[in-house]
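Hello K.,

You asked for the raw outputs rather than the summary table, so here they are, unedited. I folded two proteins back to back in the same session to keep the settings identical. This is the first:
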Amino acid sequence: MKPIHRNRRLALVAGGGVLLAAAAALVFTALQRNISYFYTPSEAAEAAIAPGARIRLGGLVETGSLSHGDGLEISFRVTDGGATMPVAYSGIVPDLFREGQGVIAQGAFNEDGVFVASTILAKHDENYIPKELQGISHELKPADEAPLTN
């Protein structure tokens, strides 16, 4: 009798391990499809990314490269100081989007090597201050003059 229970327990543990491995494989493949790597223009040039493959391209909007087309269409160049890539976008751009500012564009390269963005995200540095707070002095009081709080 004991060997039968031992075999049943072994089968249950093995079956549980197979189910756990299958669940881990499903999670891994789902995450793999949704990961969008951040490429700089230099990395994108070296990687030889196939046209149509969706990626994120990030860098600075090259000064003097921004041009507005018909309607909401714009084109500009993204640079990382080493390489430069042309980008085309049709839509409303974020308020912080401008030349010389950091940008992340999500989309794909077309057959001509132009990155066609479906989404534009503008980046800002750590020195960002809202318009309402610009010009206000942020002097700290010495510890002995600061009010006591609970």
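The second followed immediately with the same parameters:
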Amino acid sequence: MEVNLPFMREVDELWSNDNERPSHLRSAHPSTIPARNAIIYAIAAYYAEVLGIDTIVAGHNADDTKYFPDTSKEFRRLISRALTIGTYIGRARGGLRVIAPLSKLSKTEVVRLGLKLGVPFEYTWSCHNNYDVPCGQCSGCWPGRGHLMNWALRTHSKKQ
């Protein structure tokens, strides 16, 4: 399922220069999308309610919480509480939870686990850009030298 959200833009796409940015966003990570996860969780809650699902699974990892406040355990706890109060499925089932089972693992550890489990990386997406293929340059693709995500994607794709 794909949900088109054309209004969502990264911080560096919203303003032509740093001086135009609101002061509270000037130190934000360049790939920050304002209220991104709140929006995504609200959309996921809609589908959870329609489909009768009481758990939303997020793909956040430990590296994300360094830069994005809406990936923290506290944020997931509070939004889970709001979704429990604000949805029929949450009330009927005693909760609509947002969980992040990979949240204690670094990106490198997530990739290693994926390789161990035989994850089909060609169906995953960590790039922050909306291209046909991952850019290989953004923090989602390559947060630092030695990162395994692109290597895993290239290696696994060549096996196909």
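The beta strands are 55-57, 97-99.

Happy to rerun anything if the numbers look odd on your end.

Regards,
P.
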